[in-house]
Amino acid sequence: MTFCRTLALFVLCCWLPDGPAQAAGITVHDARDRDVVVDNPARIVSIGGAITEILYALGFEDRLAGVDATSLYPPAALRDKPNVGYMRQLSAEGVLGLNPSLVLAVQGSGPKETMDVLEAAKVPLVLVPETFSETGLLEKIRLVGHAMGAEPRAECLTAAVGNDLAQLRGLRAKVTKPVRVMFVMSLLSGRAMAAGRKTAADAIIQLAGGVNAVDGYDGYKIINDEAIVAAKPDVVLSIRRGKDTLDAEAIYNHPAFALTPAVASKAFISMDGLYLLGFGPRTAAAARDLSVQLYPALAPQAEKFSPVVLTANCRQ
């Protein structure tokens, strides 16, 4: 009954109309703890793959004047829209040259000099908080929807994502012996860059029912061979990113990783980067897919996990 009521509510909210003037004169409190007034969200530059994905899910792709290089989903984003470059290596000229009426940028975009120029320009700049948690994900959707003056659409999408997260919690509850997972971003000159606490990788490992094998620091850092062996990962996790993709053989042939349970059992997982770490609408589905790879015995239960967000119509 609870599932039916949730689904009915989410279907109903999908058909609620947006406000009369969309986002005209809307005040948005952003990640800088500042209030930004959005008068006309007609031409948006979206910086951050999750933001772009949310805007498409809400039906605002026609308002996108440009996107950044991390906007890999849906594929039409980079195919059809001008690319302003990587989110941490932006140029003010590239963004402002698209004549945007609103810039939506995920927290952490840069460099600082570029963000200072954008902030000093006449174009409203909203920095969207990046908090790697279930609550943070839902608030991200609500903030983008609010900036667009589309609260009913945003509530429709948050209801769908919230339902998916609830299904994920049910799946995660069936994990009886969590495995230790080490996320390795890169392996340069034999040195591993691993994810610690307060990272998207740490959060997605926990959502999937695993334990981060690296918990002695925050962020992403280079770790030495002794730390790799001491972490005792059962699984090594990484992301696919073109020519820079870390492959299983590089891990298996590494002298430190060779001494870990992960290599002993040949347990290496690689997933699409935005899907795994983006913390957008598909995050619950990504955590489900990771969970099944961590715990193959959960596959029958995972088949019952039907992501509502993948079929939700929140564009009305």
Task: Please explain how this structure is put together.
There is one protein chain. With 316 residues, this protein is of the alpha/beta class. The protein has helices at 2-14, 49-57, 76-80, 92-96, 112-120, 134-147, 151-172, 200-207, 225-231, 248-252, 261-264, 273-277, 283-294, 299-302, and strands at 26-29, 35-38, 44-47, 64-67, 102-106, 125-128, 180-188, 191-195, 211-212, 220-223, 235-240, 268-272. It has 14 helices and twelve strands. The strands form three sheets. Strands 7, 8, 9, 10, 11 and 12 form a six-stranded mixed beta sheet that branches. Strands 4-3-5-6 form a four-stranded parallel beta sheet, with helices on one face.
Topology:
Blueprint: H1 2-14, E1 26-29, E2 35-38, E3 44-47, H2 49-57, E4 64-67, H3 76-80, H4 92-96, E5 102-106, H5 112-120, E6 125-128, H6 134-147, H7 151-172, E7 180-188, E8 191-195, H8 200-207, E9 211-212, E10 220-223, H9 225-231, E11 235-240, H10 248-252, H11 261-264, E12 268-272, H12 273-277, H13 283-294, H14 299-302
Parallel strand pairs: 3-4, 3-5, 5-6, 7-9, 7-11, 11-12
Antiparallel strand pairs: 1-2, 7-8, 8-10
Key terms:
six-stranded mixed β-sheet, 316 residues, alpha/beta, single chain, disordered N terminus, four-stranded parallel β-sheet, 12 strands
Structural class label? alpha/beta
Number of strands: 12
What's the mean pLDDT score? Answer: 92
Sheet with the most strands, sense and barrel status: 6 strands, mixed
* Rg over alpha carbons: 20 Å
Task: Report how far the terminal alpha carbons are from each other.
Answer: 26 Å
Q: Are there runs of 5+ residues with pLDDT below 50, and where?
A: 1-23
Given the structure, what is the number of helices?
Answer: 14
H/E element order: HEEEHEHHEHEHHEEHEEHEHHEHHH
